[in-house]
Design brief:
Layout: E1 12-17, H1 27-34, H2 42-48, H3 50-53, H4 61-78, E2 85-89, H5 96-105, E3 110-115, H6 122-141, E4 148-151, H7 159-175, H8 178-181, E5 185-191, H9 195-199, H10 215-235, E6 241-246, H11 261-270, E7 276-279, H12 288-291, H13 293-305, E8 309-311, H14 319-336
Parallel strand pairs: 1-2, 1-3, 3-4, 5-6, 5-7, 7-8
Helix pairs in contact: 1-2, 4-14, 5-6, 7-10, 7-14, 11-13
Length: 384
């Protein structure tokens, strides 16, 4: 097998995602899964579920994961990479534990994992590792072999993730009226998280003592700068930009990252900005937070303000992203075999780490997390 297409020691890839309801009857049970352990009343979950009911109770995320799954399999086949790709979710079918059980029953013992979250944070990385640990513990309880799972590195600055977003912003600017285009502001958006989680995101070296540190914000700012620089190089226009946030939840007294996208649109309109491009760089695909919080809520706010807005595309199943996943997989496989492959990354920050160190994106309460330096769970021997 050519070295550049050698996935060893991995014998399968797992696409690990959040999951979402696929019909009205799924909405409340799905939200119960998401909020398990928080004691939120069912009636409150019905209120929260109104965002989903506006779309027939269907989140777009599962369909988008199916598209990405197809894109990965197509890319692998076209490049001679003979590696099966499976899909499992945190909060809805196909559930992670069920998928891992199938993978083990199919004979897989060394599994690479791609999470559909590109940046460092508790909810975007560590929690997925906790989910993996829970699933492996369930397999052990069932008497099944426990595979070794390795989460692929954060890919926020991989060219195959960033370049489709550059093209998306350029296309959105081209949609604006000529008289508004050059003065348009770019609002790079991502999911708001509690400031305490943002400040402790990433490796311990990323954490600062002044409450202003952490990798989550730094990684988004780096990607935003790369995109803004590329847009300037392509158009000759230096568009002003800012990183803003959306999809805040939780108790109002707990500080979350700000400004909110709707507040930002109000501020930009008051400042006389002629138009805004909303670029959701924090999201891999057009799931509910994009469809509702940007396409519905923020767009309605802009219309109320009389402010022209265009929302740029997420990466989704872009072939360049599928190729990036292949690159990340083969890069990690080569590293596991003792080689030193080239690690692609754009911007000022280096390519991410392979193995999450102790203390990376720490949990609110200590819990086992697989695919990291702190994992001490059982691992099955690979079949001969």
């Amino acid at each position: 097998m050519p070295e550049q297409c050698d996935p060893r020691p991995y014998d399968a890839l797992l696409l690990l995602s959040f999951g979402g309801p696929e019909g009205p009857d799924d909405v409340v049970p799905f939200l119960e899964n998401v909020t398990r352990g928080r004691g939120i009343p069912r009636e409150r979950l019905k209120e929260v579920g109104q965002h989903y009911f506006l779309f027939g109770g269907v989140s777009p995320i599962n369909a988008q994961n199916r598209e990405l799954l197809d894109a990965l399999r197509k890319d692998f086949a076209e490049h001679g990479l003979d590696l099966p790709v499976y899909w499992g979710n945190r909060n809805w079918a196909p559930y992670l534990t069920d998928t891992l059980r199938t993978m083990v029953q199919d004979g897989h013992r060394r599994i690479a994992v791609l999470a559909t979250s590109a940046y460092a944070s508790y909810s975007g990385c560590r929690q997925y590792r906790e989910n993996l640990a829970d699933a492996l513990a369930a397999l052990q309880t069932e008497g099944l072999p426990v595979p070794q799972v390795d989460k692929l590195r954060h890919y926020f600055n991989h060219p195959g993730f960033v370049r489709p977003m550059i093209d998306g912003v350029l296309a959105s600017l081209a949609e604006l009226p000529q008289e508004a285009r050059d003065g348009a502001h770019i609002a790079f958006t991502t999911h708001s998280i509690p400031t305490a989680a943002a400040d402790t995101s990433g490796t311990p070296a990323d954490h600062t003592q002044d409450g202003e540190g952490g990798a989550y914000v730094a990684q988004h700012l780096d990607v935003a700068q790369v995109i803004a620089d590329a847009v300037r190089a392509e158009t000759g226009v230096d568009h002003p930009w800012r990183l803003v946030y959306q999809s805040r939840s939780g108790a109002p007294h707990i500080p979350w990252l700000e400004p909110d996208i709707c507040d930002h649109l109000e501020e930009r309109q008051a400042a006389g900005v002629p138009a805004v491009v909303m670029a959701p760089i924090g999201f891999v695909s057009d799931h509910m937070e994009v469809k509702y919080d940007l396409d519905t809520e923020a767009t309605a706010k802009a219309a109320e303000l009389g402010l022209p807005v265009v929302r740029s595309a997420t990466v989704g199943a872009d072939p360049r992203f599928a190729a990036a996943v292949r690159d990340l997989l083969l890069e990690r496989a080569a590293t596991e075999r003792g080689l030193a492959p080239e690690r692609c990354a754009l911007g000022a920050l280096a390519a991410g780490h392979d193995l999450c160190p102790v203390g990376c994106c720490p949990a609110r309460a200590p819990r086992p997390a697989a695919a990291g330096a702190d994992w001490r769970g059982p691992v099955a021997e690979a079949p001969a």
